[in-house]
Design a protein that fits this description.
The complex is a heterodimer of chains A (about 110) and B (about 120). With about 110 residues, chain A is mainly beta. Chain A contains no helices and 12 strands. Classes of the chains: A mainly beta (about 110), B mainly beta (about 120).
């Protein structure tokens, strides 16, 4: 079945450092890919998405490119802030946007 | 524009009891999905409702059931609670457009503790 694998955390960075969180997937067909963020004690917020190969999703300085050849959707940000500290989830949905399949999440800790 | 709302925010039950969680979708959305998120894990899909019918279901036992009302709001019911049902229950809403479901938006969740 479909699955998502994320790098284990926590990822600990200093403010203004470069961020990469790796995400790879296994899926049949052409899934859509998402990054969601979860702040402490809250639900999930959509961060960005990409619906087809080579699409780049971007939002709030975060970017991720849908790479079909490497089945990857790595999350990047050029300069992280303390307020970016949260848990980041990579997810996919099958064609037609059916159920979301999530990775286990990667906790990001940014220190001043 | 109100987002997805869920009630209650927290709930404590004992083993064997039954619980009902509620969800109101984002304005204009017609589809509701439910997910269970155990501590330190990613959300797991329970089921999805569209046009008041269960359209898709994950690997959860029949103790988990749901309902969607004509105003698109939804309930998740769990019978015969087990300690392992303790989790954050997330509701997500979306819109079916052109035969395809669009992006899912999540509510804040209901945290259930089973003692």
């Amino acid at each position: 079945g479909n699955s998502v694998t994320q790098m284990e955390g926590p990822v600990t960075l200093s403010e203004e450092a470069f961020l990469t969180i790796n995400c790879t997937y296994t899926a049949t067909g052409y899934p859509s890919l998402f990054w969601y963020v979860q702040y402490p004690g809250e639900g999930l917020q959509l961060l960005l998405k990409a619906t087809k190969a080579d699409d780049k999703g971007s939002n709030k300085g975060f970017e991720a490119t849908y790479r079909k050849e490497t089945t990857s959707f790595h999350l990047e940000k050029g300069s992280v802030q303390v307020s970016d500290s949260a848990v980041y989830f990579c997810a996919l949905s099958e064609e037609g946007f059916q159920k979301l399949v999530f990775g286990t999440g990667t906790r990001l800790l940014v220190s001043p | 524009d109100a987002g997805v709302t869920q009630s209650p925010t927290h709930l404590i039950k004992t083993r064997g009891q039954q619980v009902t969680l509620r969800c109101s979708p984002k304005s204009g959305h017609d589809t509701v999905s439910w997910y269970q998120q155990a501590l330190g894990q990613g959300p797991q899909f329970i089921f999805q409702y569209y046009e008041e019918e269960e359209r898709q279901r994950g690997n959860f036992p029949d103790r988990f059931s749901g309902h969607q009302f004509p105003n698109y709001s939804s309930e998740l019911n769990v019978n015969a609670l087990l300690l392992g049902d303790s989790a954050l229950y997330l509701c997500a809403s979306s819109l079916v457009s052109g035969g395809q479901q669009e992006t899912q938006y999540f509510g804040p969740g209901t945290r259930l503790l089973v003692l």
